[in-house]
């Protein structure tokens, strides 16, 4: 059997699995993906690999007793076996009071996240893309360490109430760290696309090379509060922690940054600068995402923060039912609106500030205030009178994205970025923030 | 945002475990299953998945095929990886998940270059031979780009050998009901003692690994690990404040026997801490009370303090500031694009005088420590495991290195710390257990505290972050107690300390004696691209560090 099934093939296979079901409810998830990667370090290819994965997950329910079984073989006997096993597990399972049953048929938005260019990428083409990067760093006597990984696949689901969903997608992530031969300078770049034809490894490599060379003679600045310009790659790792924490249940339970004294939540309240708008939209052409959630709910365009006001949180179907609310699925993408300024414009308009390429080792310090710590890395520069003056040594920061988004000066033009922490892709603008808290210096390059 | 859940992250990844604990925005998420894994029935959880003579037959097919196609070296790993998770919150079971993953990974050297290929669920010799052929073809293709051929440290063959973790009770033989009862009883104790919410998890691992190489080793190994953990949350709805307290357990290289305690496994004091036996009921009862106490505890005044660090906390500082910077592949630049490089460069080792820490500081690497996560008989390239010094009397004396890099240190034998997290991933250098040796002079925690004028006593691991060359770090914890003039005077909150690795270890003035020595550790140390996860323990006795910078982490939003 092919690893990547068409919609018709997936539908036929799922129907066959469901025909074996004897439970009250049955839901089947099917997925397949093929990925390939090349890793390089010290200007040499170090490893390369390919992976093929396919999986069938069957969930059977008797009342509120639920069992799940998984298999990666697809002959008729295996299909029946996995259904029977999930039924056996369901009969043995304790009742899950939070089980709310499966959904009937849903209507989904159209979203195109599948690009033949990426799906058809050959190992030779992948190697050639990396070779372009290696040629540049070798010729400049700089040291490149990078990773390129592309994948294509699909997800499909069907249940005994007639719900069917199918979504094919492709993705490529490329990241590169360039260091100077003396180890005193380091630069970074990361790119993520659904369509590999948008990936220009040479152009990306030049950015990391420029940052590496320019950061080789960094000067130390005193830690303290500074105006910063966070490039989208740096902003993403803080912003994703706002997205991840917008769960209604935690807020209602009093254990979220969205909880309020008196057992209430901050829903409907202004939490950030009025220029901050954060939303999800599976149909965005620059960040296409599956139009359905893992439990089959339709993903719609939804605004989480509208002009600084908290307008929505995620409600699981169980929690929504309990609270008398409409369910809101955990989204498949996140987008932050911005302005029109380019990064260059933003630097030009800065009297005194620090340009941050990347933030690293982000960890929560206090969930109550969404306080995070981490460090700058791979290209940190001092700006004076609208120009980059010199590189500065890296800082540790302790900052809350909520405080940061109240200290907003300028938002630039959003672009697609890859989180260096979670590998997630987002649309995020560069952002200029005043009084960003750097609490100590680091000697790291 | 679902992409967030699909891939493991860099370095030590606490977020995955928070998700397991139900703290995630998406509610309950099934843990990411390893490649090709599928759920298993109860009868597959115990016993040998496949007998050793079959494994030898399959392995020989791979080795012979590789040799016939020109490999100068080859190893075959046949692995069966079994995981079980039991997840609960308050009085509910959220999930019981069993996963199994079985397959073969083959590594070869052809024309001086590595090649690797893997295949799921091999049924016969022909499948394994075909996999070997793929590995050979990859090695040949990559050899064209190669400038320096692989230099492999020689390794004698051990013949047919085996190693079994010295467990007393196989956790997979314990009925699910008993595990569920344990967690729900613990949760109930938390709720009756003042918790508003509680999540608890029991995670169990059994790796059955067979290693065969052209050096003539056939090593059959059976490895067991267990990790009980919880998070208790106390909420003060009136003020809108909340506080959590995580378990003081450690993931261990043990069976279910870790959950059966003897009095000698417990360390008394301001709160009970645990050695090789963990009393979840006692710990969660204390945790509920302490989470409540945290809500009204004194917010720390920022400044310099002498820190007294319990092993349940110090393991993580050792992991980040000693374990990682002394990985030779990082030092050489192989991890530059992800985990980073290291401040501990080769010239510092060669100087033979680099003062990593004070003379009290002795740090050892050890792949043989009984009950630890890293303990095995042979590593994943057929090297018998051992113990070696990294820092002796404060001086940097060695790194962690494997067969294709140890020659860079002028050594003729690998340290035996090569590991792959699955049969489908290629083995590379991974951190052995790295531990701070206990002090040689008798010293109790009580006597250590007696001497401290202005200090903070920290128990349990919390927030952690360190730069990519391992200079600047910041750590939180679970419990913080203020020490004034030799006495513990009360609980503190909002505490984190910031230091520089070398300054920190040079500020170590005392380490308690062996009677206080305990292990901490993690299942999920991430490294490599694509990222692989490794389990590692770190031991220490309580240690004192003078004049460390403490910050206050409270903010208003």
TrEMBL record, chain A:
InterPro entries, per the entry: Metalloprtase-TldD/E_C, Metalloprtase-TldD/E_cen_dom, Metalloprtase-TldD/E_N, TldD/PmbA_N, TldD/PmbA_sf
Occurrences of domain Metalloprotease TldD/E C-terminal (ranges): 223-439
GO MF annotation, one: metallopeptidase activity
GO BP of this protein: proteolysis
SUPFAM superfamilies listed in its UniProt record: Putative modulator of DNA gyrase, PmbA/TldD
Domain Metalloprotease TldD/E N-terminal: 26-90
Metalloprotease TldD/E central domain: residues covered: 129-213
Highest taxon, organism lineage: Bacteria
Gene3D superfamilies tied to this protein: PmbA/TldD superfamily
A Pfam family that the UniProt record links to this protein: PmbA_TldD_1st
Family statement drawn from the similarity comment of this UniProt entry: Belongs to the peptidase U62 family.
The protein's name: TldD/PmbA family protein
């Amino acid at each position: 059997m092919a690893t990547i099934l068409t919609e018709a093939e997936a539908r036929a296979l799922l129907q066959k699995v469901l025909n074996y079901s004897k439970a009250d409810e049955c839901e089947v998830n099917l997925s397949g993906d093929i990925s390939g990667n090349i890793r390089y370090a010290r200007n040499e290819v170090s490893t390369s690999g390919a992976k093929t994965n396919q999986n069938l997950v069957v969930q059977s329910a008797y009342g509120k007793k639920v069992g799940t079984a998984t298999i990666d073989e697809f002959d008729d006997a295996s299909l029946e076996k996995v259904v029977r096993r999930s039924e056996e597990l369901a009969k043995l399972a304790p009742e899950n009071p939070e089980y709310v049953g499966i959904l009937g048929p849903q209507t989904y938005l159209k979203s195109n996240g599948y690009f033949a260019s990426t799906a058809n990428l050959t190992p030779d083409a992948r190697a050639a893309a990396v070779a372009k990067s290696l040629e540049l760093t070798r010729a400049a006597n700089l040291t490149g360490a990078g990773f390129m990984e592309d994948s294509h696949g699909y997800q499909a689901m069907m249940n005994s109430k007639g719900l069917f969903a199918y979504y094919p997608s492709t993705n490529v992530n490329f990241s590169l760290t360039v260091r100077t031969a003396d180890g005193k300078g380091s630069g970074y770049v990361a790119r993520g696309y659904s369509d590999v034809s948008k990936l220009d490894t040479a152009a990306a490599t030049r950015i990391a090379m420029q940052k590496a060379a320019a950061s080789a003679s960094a000067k130390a600045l005193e830690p303290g509060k500074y105006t910063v310009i966070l490039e989208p790659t740096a902003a993403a790792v803080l912003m994703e922690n706002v997205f991840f924490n917008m769960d209604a249940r935690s807020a209602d339970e009093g254990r979220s940054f969205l909880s309020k004294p008196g057992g209430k939540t901050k829903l409907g309240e202004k939490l950030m600068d009025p220029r901050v708008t954060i939303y999800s939209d599976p149909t965005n052409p620059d960040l296409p995402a599956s139009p359905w959630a893992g439990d089959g709910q339709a993903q719609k365009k939804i605004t989480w923060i509208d002009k600084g006001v908290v307008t929505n949180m995620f409600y699981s179907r169980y929690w929504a039912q309990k609270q008398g609310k409409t369910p809101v699925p955990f989204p498949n993408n996140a987008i932050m609106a911005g302005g029109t300024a380019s990064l260059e414009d933003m630097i030009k308009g800065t009297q005194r500030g620090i340009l941050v390429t990347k933030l690293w080792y982000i960890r929560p310090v206090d969930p109550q205030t969404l306080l995070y710590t981490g460090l700058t890395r791979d290209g940190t520069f001092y700006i004076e009178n609208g120009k980059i003056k010199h590189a500065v040594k890296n800082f540790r920061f302790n900052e809350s994205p909520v405080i940061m988004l109240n200290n907003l000066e300028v938002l630039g033009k959003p672009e697609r970025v890859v989180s260096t922490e979670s590998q997630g892709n987002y649309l995020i603008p560069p952002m200029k923030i005043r009084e960003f808290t750097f609490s100590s210096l680091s000697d790291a390059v | 945002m679902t992409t967030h859940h699909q891939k493991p992250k860099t370095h030590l990844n606490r977020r995955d475990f928070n998700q397991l604990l139900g703290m995630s925005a998406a509610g309950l998420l099934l843990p990411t299953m390893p490649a090709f894994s599928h759920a298993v029935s109860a009868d597959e959880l115990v016993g040998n998945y496949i007998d050793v003579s079959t494994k030898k037959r399959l392995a020989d097919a791979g080795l012979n095929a590789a040799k016939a196609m020109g490999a100068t070296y080859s190893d075959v790993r046949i692995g069966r990886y079994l995981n079980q998770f039991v997840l609960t919150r308050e009085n509910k079971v959220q999930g019981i998940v069993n996963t199994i993953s079985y397959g073969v990974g083959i590594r070869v050297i052809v024309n001086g270059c590595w090649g690797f290929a893997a295949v799921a669920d091999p049924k016969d010799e022909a499948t394994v031979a075909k996999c070997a052929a793929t590995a050979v073809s990859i090695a040949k293709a990559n050899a064209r780009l190669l400038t320096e051929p692989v230099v492999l440290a020689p390794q004698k063959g051990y013949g047919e050998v085996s190693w079994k973790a010295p467990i007393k009770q196989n956790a997979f033989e314990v009925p699910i009901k008993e595990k569920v009862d344990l967690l729900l009883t613990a949760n109930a104790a938390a709720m009756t003692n003042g918790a508003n919410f509680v999540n608890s998890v029991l995670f169990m691992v059994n790796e059955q690994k067979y290693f065969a190489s052209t050096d003539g080793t056939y090593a059959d190994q059976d490895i067991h690990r267990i990790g009980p953990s919880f998070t208790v949350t106390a909420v003060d709805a009136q003020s809108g404040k909340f506080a959590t307290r995580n378990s003081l357990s450690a993931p261990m290289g043990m069976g279910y026997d870790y959950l059966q305690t003897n009095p000698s496994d417990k360390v008394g004091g301001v709160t009970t801490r645990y050695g090789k036996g963990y009393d979840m009921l006692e710990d969660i009862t204390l945790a509920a009370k302490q989470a409540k106490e945290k809500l009204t505890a004194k917010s720390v005044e920022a400044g310099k303090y002498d820190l007294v660090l319990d092993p349940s906390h110090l393991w993580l500082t050792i992991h980040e500031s000693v374990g990682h910077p002394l990985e030779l592949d990082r030092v050489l630049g192989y991890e530059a694009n992800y985990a980073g490089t290291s401040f501990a460069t080769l010239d510092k080792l060669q100087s033979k005088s680099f003062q990593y820490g004070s003379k009290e500081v002795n740090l050892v690497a050890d792949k043989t420590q009984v009950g630890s996560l890293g303990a095995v008989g042979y590593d994943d390239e057929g090297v018998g495991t051992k113990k070696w010094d990294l820092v002796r009397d404060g001086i940097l004396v060695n790194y962690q290195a494997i067969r294709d890099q140890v020659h860079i240190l002028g050594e003729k034998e690998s340290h035996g710390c090569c590991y792959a997290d699955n049969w489908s991933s290629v083995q590379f250098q991974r951190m052995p257990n790295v531990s701070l040796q206990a002090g040689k002079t008798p010293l109790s925690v009580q006597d250590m505290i007696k001497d401290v004028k202005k200090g903070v006593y920290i128990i349990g691991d919390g927030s952690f972050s360190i730069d990519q060359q391992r200079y600047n770090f910041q750590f939180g914890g679970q419990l913080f107690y203020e020490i004034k003039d030799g006495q513990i005077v009360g609980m503190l909150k909002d505490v984190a300390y910031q230091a520089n690795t070398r300054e920190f270890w040079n500020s170590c003035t005392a380490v308690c004696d062996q009677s206080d020595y305990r292990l901490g550790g993690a299942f999920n140390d991430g490294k490599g691209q694509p990222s692989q996860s490794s389990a590692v323990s770190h031991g220490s006795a309580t240690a004192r560090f003078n004049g460390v910078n403490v910050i206050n982490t409270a903010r208003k939003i």
